[in-house]
Amino acid sequence: KIAKSHGSQCGFCTPGIVMSMYTLLRNHPAPKMEEIEDAFQGNLCRCTGYRPILEGYRTFAKDGGCCGGKVNDFGCCMAGKENKVGLITSNLFNPSEFQPLDPTQEPIFPPELLTQNNKPQKQLCFKGERVMWFQPSTLRELVALKAQYPSAKLVVGNTEVGIEMRLKNMLYPVIIAPTWIPEMNSVQHTNEGISFGASCTLRRMEEVLQKAVAELPRYKSEVFQAVLEQLRWFAGPQIRNVAAVGGNIMTASPISDLNPVFMASGSKLTLESNGDRTIKMDETFFTSYRKTILKPQEILVSIEIPFSRKGEYFSAFKQASRREDDIAIVTCGLRVLFQEGTDRVKEIKLSYGGMAPTTVLAVKTCQELWKENLLQEACHRLAGEMNLSPSAPGGMVDFRRTLVLSFFFKFYLTVLQKLHSELSENNNLGDMVPSSYASATELFRKDPINNVQLFQEVPPGQSVEDTVGRPLVHLSAGKQASGEAVYCDDIPHYENELYLTLVTSTKAHAKIVSIDATEAQKVPGFVCFVSAEDVPGSNVTGIANDETVFAKDTATCVGHIIGGVLADTQEHSRRAARAVKITYEDLPPIVTIQEAIEKQSFFETDRTIVKGNIEKGFQEADHIVEGEMYLGGQEHFYLETHCTIAVPKGEDGEMELFVSTQNLTKTQEFVAKALGVPSNRIVVRVKRMGGGFGGKETRNTIVSTAVAVAAVKVGCPVRCMLDRDEDMLISGGRHPFLGQYKVGFKKNGRITSLDVTYYSNGGNSVDLSHGVMDRAVLHMDNTYNIPNLRGTGIVCKTNLSSNTAFRGFGGPQGMMIAECWMSDIALKCGLPAEEVRKLNLYNEGDLTHFDQKLEGFTVPRCLEECLRNSDYHSRRKLIDEFNKQNRWKKRGMAIIPTKFGISFTVPFLNQAGALVHVYTDGSVLLTHGGTEMGQGLHTKMIQVASRALAIPTSKIHISETSTNTVPNASPTAASVSSDINGMAVLNACQTILKRLEPMKSANPKGSWEDWVLAAYHNCVSLSATGFYRIPDVGYDFKTNTGTPFCYFTYGVACSEVEIDCLTGDHKNLRTDIVMDVGTSLNPAIDIGQIEGAFVQGIGLFTLEELRYSPEGNLYTRGPGMYKIPAFGDIPTEFYVSLLRDCPNRKAIYSSKAVGEPPLFLSASVFYAIKDAIVSAREESGLKGPFRLDSPATPERIRNACVDVFTKLPTQVPESLK
């Protein structure tokens, strides 16, 4: 189902998603849509945007049927709309083809495993090289082991210790697994609450508490409900299924989701050592960072969570960067007990995580009447008691302090509501909670997604075998879904293969004084250390020849490759690499754009475009606004990290490399240069990648060259696949940008002049930074006609890993800053933003600021269709009404256009080659210069060849991309791959067809196979190359002349969001996209690219944040700290429509490029958030332009919603209304 519903693109994540769905179905054969979405909380996908995955699995849901066009279902009533050429349809796939689920036909669970638990177990002991593992069967055995090994770690799910050992290089020589101890697995219902054994999984706790809440009176289950609310957002189901409640407590994390609840509720812990004792989790339990009052030999046996009492109220809150599967920024458990039948506080406990090195209890908070004076007094005391120093670990100090007050305010309102409903009117409780405040008490809920995707059907009469324009399934989707697709690291190991682990700099800028591998040599399996001394050719590498294969004298970033360790296994190689000692002499680092500006640290070439007379334009303006906007970088987070296998061939310096790369040519060239051999000795092969997004266009070469050098040194195959933390540290990402602008405009919003200076953080080498800046400056206008303009681009040289290509390649940064000053204009003039945007739009035939004429400019069409599809004006009125009625929840909406230029800005890259072999049985082997990374390029190329040769797609196969079949291929990048490779494929197919013409003339009624065999018998070549170059493109920044782009792809998106003004949370309610992709080669793939790019852009503009230390050390090195969008982050209503009747005469079969252009449309979410913040700020009397940097994280949203809680958290709020 996931394959046929187009839910697999690169496929690297697909098996995991399949198994999550299968697990759900084994346990709940008829799930609800909400259960399906929850099942994927622990899964990530970087390609699809999640919608097609959910859409395919909707067919399993008992509540997933067609709902009037809101789902993409077969026979949907949205299908069949007519236009003048063909039908508009939403039928991307046909659910009637799916076999119904029959749970009775599933394999039974192995009975021997079911009975295993009931058999008495014997204590186990396993001894490894460095670790002993014990598994006792009785509590007595466990106590004895802990007495013998007091520092031993107790492990149940290994969700914390495993991470520490793997990622933090910590070693625990003795590990004890208490999973067989009956007392630690039991659940006991007592008179005071429910007791859970410390080894009980969080999932089991969840099930027990859900049952208790359903059966108990509500007043008795307040604490249980709070625990369940926290568990709902605790990691993902995979973690909850194995992680133990005891582990969560004893890890003593200061940001634990559950410990504040346990502490505030007064949960009791039973401990065992020489005897047992029971203690209460109170303010004395956590003694320091990750430390408790337990003695080393003591064991946590169980925890008793108490029933709540009459007059007792309990709430728990958590704020994270991402709602699903994310660690808390601040978390809390809040409890109050009233004297029965009154509003007088008898007892109050407020426990917070994320505000100190431990979970803390606010012990000084007052006890007063539950009225506004208590609220003010509590806020005052909390602000003082939970104060953080400006340098507190974790940062976000103001945000965290404000969350403490915001959470208490939510709790206060929640309790006040309940008191009003439960106590009689005679108790004089004062005013009810204002209706505009009521939404502040609502817990986060997200409805199951609704969506429709519309596209134009093929013309009547098109052959059934002609798949161009049809939603053909990605041809590798089936293999990917079943786990049979082969990626680089899936290639079987060679018999004599060694593993390479890179040794990288821990300093951002330092002289390398010495390298000592003595300790590494002591690790079992160690073979040798590889460094600059071992490079047989040139150690100089990089796009601008400003990098090294291995750093020799100076390290210029944390993660700079200094050497590598070869060993017999991956584990031994990594252990040995950690043992290499490097001595440094520190040099001052430059980390940020601001530091680079201060120290004038720039790469030499600036980019400037001037149009008109900007000074005259500013003189004509009624208003001038100056400002700046910062856009953070972005990690590619392809699911498959960089991987290379280098295989020396043993003669003539030949080497074969299997690489996960978008750029075979540069990989071949750089490896040949490092090895000192001609390129014809190096063959680079790529079958598929698990995602790329630009991150494998050049940066894979730093891994591939190191692996190749190592393979030459030892004369045998060498493999290296980076861990996620290594990949994020070494490979760079999207360029952070700072835009400083000055814009002049009339009272009606018409722009008269614009001056923008862009600064990007290029990192420690040039790489593609100049090209990225070129595109940013070329897209500084977005879709707006500005008569007088100057754009200047400056690339900063810093001591970070070199930033590189990323989907959009500078375009999103340039356009984002354009929409920033467009937003300022609207706010300054007091005009609706959409009117200001429409007023300044280009028209057909206008010249851009680089003097390219706009032909086929469909943005006005896209805009009108998007306004109509989204019902924009009616919904705007509803949003305004919602905002009037809600003080602490606000909604916003924005409609954003895009214009994305298609071509490489480096002219010679706009070329491609193809090779077609036809075999005597009629089958066709097709090769072209592009690589498959999930974007469906191979599928589209087979569709192109199928139409050209007039044969079914089943007769055509693409095996791989390699340098020995198509030489000098351009990188698969810039969104042009289907354009240039498609035309090259067409060219090759036309050559074959021309050769077959005599055979067809001689046998007009013959089949394809007849003609091919006849050609072979007549000694006619059945192999042909194809070539194509985009004509007349190229731009000279020195003279500001030329045509940089072949054409433009256009689109418009409208998004609506809702923000929580107290926490900074937001949810994406609805997005409507209208995209001009010409005549689509494959609507399913194109819509998938639109949705995937859009969701990746949601990450860029609202979620993903790279954090560095002042010394240039990257903090966010993995999925634990760096959060990409998850299933729950996509719009609840997600509508995509391909603009009809807009063929593009400049590309293959009238199509358009689609990979990068849609990404910027997610700026509509950012500016919808900003629109909502405007409403929140107006409540505090603030109007006009304000700064909101990207991404719009909860921290930035909350801090921008200025109110009594943000102004001065350490002071008593004067008014709380």
Automatic annotation (TrEMBL):
InterPro entries: 2Fe-2S-bd, 2Fe-2S-bd_dom_sf, Ald_Oxase/Xan_DH_a/b, Ald_Oxase/Xan_DH_a/b_sf, Ald_Oxase/xanthine_DH-like, AldOxase/xan_DH_MoCoBD1, AldOxase/xan_DH_MoCoBD2, AldOxase/xan_DH_Mopterin-bd_sf. It is found in: Cytoplasm. FAD binds at residues 154-161, 234, 257, 300, 318. The keyword Oxidoreductase applies. Belongs to the xanthine dehydrogenase family. Binds 2 [2Fe-2S] clusters. Binds 1 Mo-molybdopterin (Mo-MPT) cofactor per subunit. Residues 126-310 form the FAD-binding PCMH-type domain. Substrate binds at residues 697, 775, 809, 905. Mo-molybdopterin binds at residues 662, 693, 807, 974. Its cofactor is [2Fe-2S] cluster; Mo-molybdopterin; FAD. This is Xanthine dehydrogenase. GO terms for cellular component: cytoplasm. The active site is at residue 1156. Keywords: 2Fe-2S, Cytoplasm, FAD, Flavoprotein, Iron, Iron-sulfur, Metal-binding, Molybdenum, Oxidoreductase. [2Fe-2S] cluster binds at residues 10, 13, 45, 47. SMART domains: Ald_Xan_dh_C, CO_deh_flav_C. Its main location: cytoplasm. It comes from the Eukaryota. GO terms for molecular function: 2 iron, 2 sulfur cluster binding; FAD binding; iron ion binding; molybdopterin cofactor binding; oxidoreductase activity.
